[in-house]
Amino acid sequence: MSDSVATEISKRAAVAARAVAKLTTAEKNAVLQKMADAIRASEQDILAVNKKDLQQGKEKGLSDAMMDRLQLDSERVEGMATAIEEIIKLDDPVGERYPFTERPNGIKVEKMRIPLGVICMIYEARPNVTADAGSLCFKSGNAVILRCGREAIDTSKAIAKALHQALRESNLPEDVITVVPSPDRELMMELLKQDDYIDLVIPRGGEGLIHFVSDNSKIPVIQHYKGVCHLYVDKDADQEKALNILLNGKTQRTGVCNALEALLVHSDIAKEFLPKAAKALAEKNVKVHACKQSIQFFDGAEAIADDAFGEEYLALEIAVRTVADYDGAVEHIQDFGSGHTEVIISENQETVERFIREIDSAVTMANTSSRFSDGGQLGLGAEIGISTSKLHAYGPMGLQSLTTEKYVVTGTGQIRE
Amino acid sequence: MSDSVATEISKRAAVAARAVAKLTTAEKNAVLQKMADAIRASEQDILAVNKKDLQQGKEKGLSDAMMDRLQLDSERVEGMATAIEEIIKLDDPVGERYPFTERPNGIKVEKMRIPLGVICMIYEARPNVTADAGSLCFKSGNAVILRCGREAIDTSKAIAKALHQALRESNLPEDVITVVPSPDRELMMELLKQDDYIDLVIPRGGEGLIHFVSDNSKIPVIQHYKGVCHLYVDKDADQEKALNILLNGKTQRTGVCNALEALLVHSDIAKEFLPKAAKALAEKNVKVHACKQSIQFFDGAEAIADDAFGEEYLALEIAVRTVADYDGAVEHIQDFGSGHTEVIISENQETVERFIREIDSAVTMANTSSRFSDGGQLGLGAEIGISTSKLHAYGPMGLQSLTTEKYVVTGTGQIRE
C-alpha cells in the first residue's frame, strides 16, 4: 500500500529532522541569516502572490480583521526578515547539558537538551507565521510542517520558497520546512494521525480550531483555549496603581488573550475603590457587568449572577465582583479562571506571597499589568504559542518549549548486580 | 442532568487537589508518615482481602506472572510502608523558584514549580502501585485517581482504606486519593474524557493497554510502548567491558524494558568480537537472530532480514548485526530504536561524545549497562513511570515529572505603553 500524502510528508520531515538536529548553533545561525536574506530578496514575488490571495479573500468576503492579518506589504516582509535575525540572537537551548547526579557505583548521570523532532503548526490566515514558526522550529533543531489556512496558503508557499532557497544553499533538505500542498481538512485530519513521525502539534487560532485539533489528534497538542484574566485589588492595594493597571489591562488592547476580563475587589475597600474604577472605566466607554454588591457604584452596569462569571469578552467589557476577602478572590479565580494570567494589587508582601503560592495560573503577577503576559514582554525573545494546559509547557512558549531533556549516563564498565 | 460517576470522582479530586497544593513539605511528610504507619497497622486486613483476590485469580486461571504480581505477604506490605518512608526523604519539587529575567522596565520574571493537579493512574494487577502512586502524587502536591485492574481492585481498596485513615487524621479530604469503585471499562472510558478535571493520565501495563488509553483519552497520556534497547560495540571498544555489559543487559533480567534487545558491532572488530560474544551468549542459552554478516559466528542462530529488526523479545533472545561503521550504528538505532535506552561501548572519547549528541533516546549511555536505565538506579528516588515520547517528560519520571512550572511576575505598578 502506498503512503498517503500526509504520511509521505511526515516521514520526509522525520528524516529531515535528523539533519537539523545535528547542526551546531553557528551552522543554524548561518542558515537563518540566509533565510532572512532570501525573504528580503523575494519581496516582490511574495507581495505579488499575496495580492492574489487578497483579491480572492475580497471576493470571498473575508472580514476586515481577517484581511488585515492576511495582508503583507514591504514593511511586513521586512518585519519577517528582521524577526528571523532576532531569532539568530537567541540562545540555542539544544545541547545544554548539566550534571544530575553521580551514583555510588560511579556512573555519572547528566541531563541534556535535545530537539523534539517534528512540529506541526496549524494556523489560519497569518502568512508571517510561516517565517516565524519555520525559523523558531529550525533554531531549536526541529523540522516543521506548516498547515496554513486556505486564505493564506499561496502567500505561505511563496515565503517557504524563499526559506527553501536558503536550505538548498546550505545543503539541507527542503523537507526541513514543509508547507502542506493543500489546506484540505482531510489532509489535516490525516496529519493529526501521524504520531509515528510528528512529535507535537501547535494550533494557533480560535477556540473552535483548537478544540477540533485536540479532539482529532493522536499527537500531543498544545492547548490554548482562552484568557480570562483577573485583577484582584486587595484591601492593602495602592489604589492609584490598581486603577492604572486596571485601565491598561482592559483598554490598551482588547482583542488579545492577556487583556483583563474581570475585576475582583476586597469588600473592605469596595466603597472607596469602586467609584473611582467606575469613573475611569466610564471615561474609556467600558461596559460593566457587576455583581449585586458592586452594581450600585456603576451607572448603566448590567447585573451578573454569581455563577455566570468566566466570560472572555475580548472587547471593552469587564466583569466586576466584590469579594469578602483574599480567600474569596482566590476561590473566584479557581472557579472561573482559565489558567492564563491573574494579577494581585497589594502592598502587603505577605498577601502577595500567598497569592503567588496559591494561584496556579501560567502567569501569576503582582502589581503590574496583565498585558505583559506574553513571550516578548517576559523576555523569551519570540513566542511560538501560549499553553494554558500544564503539560509540557505552561504559559508563553519560547525556543526551549520546542525541546526536551534526555538522560546522559556514562560509566567505566559498571554492570548491575 | 446529574454527573456521571467518572465526572463526580474527577470533580471531587480536582477540589481535593487544591487542598494538597497548599500544604508545606513538612505537612506533606507528616501525612506520609501517617500513611506508612497506617499501612503497617492494616497489614492483617490487607492480607485478608488479598487472599480473596488471589483465590478469585486462581479460579479465573490467571498466569503465574500475574498471580505473582497480585500476591502480597507480610514482607511486601512492609515494603509498601518503607517505600513511603523513602518518599518522605525525597526533595519536594513544589515551590522551587528561580530567577528567569529582569526586564528593562523593572518587572521581575521568575519561574516557580507547581503541582499538575489531578493525575489518573491506570494499571493492572500490582496492588503496590496503589501505595506507591498514591504517595508519589501526594508528595508532589497532586490528587490522584487510581484505576486498578479487576484482579487487584479489592486489595487496592484495602490499601486505600489505610491511606484514607491517614488523610482523615490530617484533616484532609479522602478524595485526595481515590480508587475507582469498579474496574469497568465504561468507567475508565468516561474517566479518559474528564479533561476539565484531570491533568495527566499515566497508564502502566502492556502495549495494548497503553494504546487503548492513548487512543481513547482526551487528556494527555504518558506513553511507554516498549524498550528496544541497543548495545553498539565500537571499533575502539574495550571488548572485555563490552562482553560484561552485553551479558548483564541481556541476561540479568529479561522481562524488563531496559534489557538489551540488539547488539550492533563495528565491522572492523566483528571477526574478533563476535566469536567471544557467541560463546558468552551460548553459555547463557541466549537465542541469536543474526544478520547475513554475523550469522557465521553463531551456532544455531536464526537469520534475520535487514528490515526485520526492532523486536522487543523480553526473553533470552537477541538480534545481532554487523554495521559498517559508527554511522551505520546510529542509522540502525534511528530506524529501529524505541527511544528508550541505547549504549555505546568505546574508549574513544570523541566517538562517545558524538553518540551522546546524535542519539536522541531518553537514556543515552556510554560504557555501562542498560539495566541502570530506571528511576531508582539513576537517582530519582522513586519512579512513577517511564516516558518514551518526548513531550512533558522523557525517560524515567520522578516527582518532578508530576509538576510543571509557571511564571511569577512582580512589579511596582508598571503598565504597558
Automatic annotation (TrEMBL), chains A, B:
EC number: 1.2.1.41
Pathway it works in: Amino-acid biosynthesis; L-proline biosynthesis; L-glutamate 5-semialdehyde from L-glutamate: step 2/2
Domain Aldehyde dehydrogenase: from-to ranges: 8-286
Main location class: cytoplasm
CDD domains with a match to the protein in the record: ALDH_F18-19_ProA-GPR (cd07079)
Any one GO MF annotation of this record: glutamate-5-semialdehyde dehydrogenase activity
Record-level GO BP terms: L-proline biosynthetic process
Recorded catalytic activity of this chain's protein: L-glutamate 5-semialdehyde + phosphate + NADP(+) = L-glutamyl 5-phosphate + NADPH + H(+)
A Pfam family recorded for this sequence: Aldedh
GO CC terms: cytoplasm
Record's keyword terms, sorted: Amino-acid biosynthesis, Cytoplasm, NADP, Oxidoreductase, Proline biosynthesis
Cellular localization per UniProt: Cytoplasm
Domain of life: Bacteria
Function (record text): Catalyzes the NADPH-dependent reduction of L-glutamate 5-phosphate into L-glutamate 5-semialdehyde and phosphate. The product spontaneously undergoes cyclization to form 1-pyrroline-5-carboxylate.
Family note: Belongs to the gamma-glutamyl phosphate reductase family.
Stated name of the protein: Gamma-glutamyl phosphate reductase
Biological source species: Pseudidiomarina planktonica
Taxonomic placement: Bacteria, Pseudomonadati, Pseudomonadota, Gammaproteobacteria, Alteromonadales
